[in-house]
Amino acid sequence: MPNIENYKTVQLIILIAVIIIVIPALLLQPAFFKFWNFSNSASIGETIGGITSPFINGIAAILVFIAFKAQIKANQIITNQEKSRNILSQITLVQDDKLEIDTVILSTINRSEYLQSSSIIQIINALNKILFFTSEIRLAYELIQEYEGEKDFLYRKLYYLYIIRYQTLFLNLNAMLNNELANVHKDYELIVVELLLQIKYLNENLKDVTLYK
Length: 213
What we know:
Mean pLDDT: 81
Number of helices: 7
Helix content: over 70%
Largest sheet: none
Distance between the termini: 32 Å
Shape: rod-shaped
């Protein structure tokens, strides 16, 4: 079944004009068969009215169709605007960085033999903060993927934010965790593995500024 949005309003207007102008004119022409000949009818007005009534109803249906199509388009615009605001809010959340994740990552990287010398609770707390933060960036990216409007501006905003502010930190953290992977305690081993996967995901998907160009 064709999508109603594939039909242009001008096409429907032309169709209505054809119905109104052509069909009554055809009915007034002499016909080959007597039972279809209305040109000499004394009650030509009633005849045309009775015959064209279904067409008028059809025209009314077409007008409703046009209004319905316009409503769908308006709803889509409103939905896209709302989705765009949600994406921008998510990017702003990452940008504000209330967890001060750059400080958390730097303290994790710069501490000598961090995974051995720190308490398990301290390590888990830091790793969970970083993992949560990577999830926030990933959510922003996936919202852009699902967005049906213009993606380029939104993606570029997230891309540059990640590249300028966070990528180097995550790459250094990734290197440190890989070096210490053999010494990871079982209590936070799964967190480390998931964090490494998250960093890999972000670096693979936030690497081409022209992705939606």
